[in-house]
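Notes to self after the Tuesday call (sharing in case useful).
The group wants a holo model before anyone commits to mutagenesis around the pocket. I volunteered. Ligand is zinc ion. Logging inputs and output together so the record is complete.
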Amino acid sequence: MTDTFIVTITPPTPNGDLHIGHIAGPFLGADIFTRTQRLKGAQCYMVSYSDDYQSYLTRKAMESDTDAVNLAKVNSAKIQDSLRMADIQVDHWLESYENRHFEAATQMLYESTQAQGLIEAKTCFEPYCEHCDVWGYEAFARGGCDHCGHSSDPSQCEFCAMAPNVLEMSDLQCMLCHQPVVFKPVERRMLKLPMVAQALRERLDKAPMRPTLRAWVKEAYNNGLIDWGITRPGEAGLKLYDDEAHRVHTWFMGQAGYFAALKELSEHNEQARDAYELLFRDSTRLVNFLGMDCSYSHVLAYPAQVLLNPRFQFKNAFYTNAFLKLDGVDFSTSRGHAIWARDLVSDACADSVRFYVSLVAPEEHTENFEPAAFWTWRQHIFGVLLPKLASALSSGASVVGSEGVVLSELEGSLVEQWQQSARHDQFSMKGIALVLMQMLVAIEAQLDAGKVPRNLIALFALLGEPTLPSLNKALQQQLTQTERSVFAALLNLRPAGKESTGE
Ligand SMILES: [Zn+2]
Ligand SMILES: [Zn+2]
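Result:
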């Protein structure tokens, strides 16, 4: 049976364009995952959307004296443009503001969760600034996280990814006037995570995830799951029944956003009519690519939303990433310490940026991007080695007959390493990139010795396609038809040249 994957990228807040840190996180990982599984014959849809109900967007609009809706539109367009430039091909991108599919999916998940008895109203004490007249649920307040002590907003800690207990946070201040906040009572709807803790744990135990996230889940359970506030009266969010008491915040709506994007995709694209229906099949895996800081919502709340609903049969997988630093320092767009994705792919090329960013991807822990190291690497690989490889390929003749090809020990081992990193349940774009580099090192040694390692070059051309799509499709064109089909059959890949968006 064909494997089916719905691949999601955490929605970026449309308060700015994408920098290289974003690309190194969920964006490139999801794209290379999708291309890799398609190469292996799977059916995939990749979706994301613009996070138009984020309270950071509201704050940015207030601070820059602009309209939040406009700001979101302009930046959503920029983000999509940057993705195209980096050759990151989202099958559907949804704009969530006043989107009927988005509202319907949110309402459906809210009501389904409520019908299971998992939602309850409760009076909470929440941070509030009396000077600025703003609630401090998220973007408008900041203090010390009660779990790890790092600076955090009261919603989800960027450092430890836990949801802070706001009453236990230290030095909580308003982000507009930097005065201490007060605590005001407000009635909120809560998602009763403790009620499903056991069943959720069993579901998560079966879901592929990286060791860092596995350890985080264990820690979250050791801390004890607690009720999670899902409405934010008086702040950013979607008013479900046109009433302030049901203003659902954006972190509750992430999964609804993915579902809505699938629904919109199935309506817009004749070839993807089954996109939404796939959620009802137990052979489908929903593969979330996310920053570690989004774990609380994606790993605990979203599976809980569908856990007791028998219609949703899909299984989960989670691929988290840590942060990328730039020259050893955190990216900061406000301090101008960032490299925009569009600038780098314009100055270099999408393939070289994709390949290098894969090599330094912060899959398990923080990694560093050094522009100087990138340019030195690029000069050698893209300026010298790859042109030499391409010209050796075009001047050499194929030695492969239709009876097949026998791989050397080295070639066999490289293929096996690629296959390990390409697995859907143990995926690593970094692992893939490291194997591709090993191939290049071996190819270079042979070329320097005056030989043309045609088998290795063919393997690089085919297995490197998800990472370097443009260059490797061009390399594949230089192989003979027999080489392409013999290698594709050997590697269990879809025949070269055949594209699919999941027929
Ligand atoms: Zn923390
Ligand atoms: Zn204030």
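Two things stood out.
The chain is about 45% helix and 15% strand.
The CA atoms of residues 50 and 95 lie 5 Å apart.
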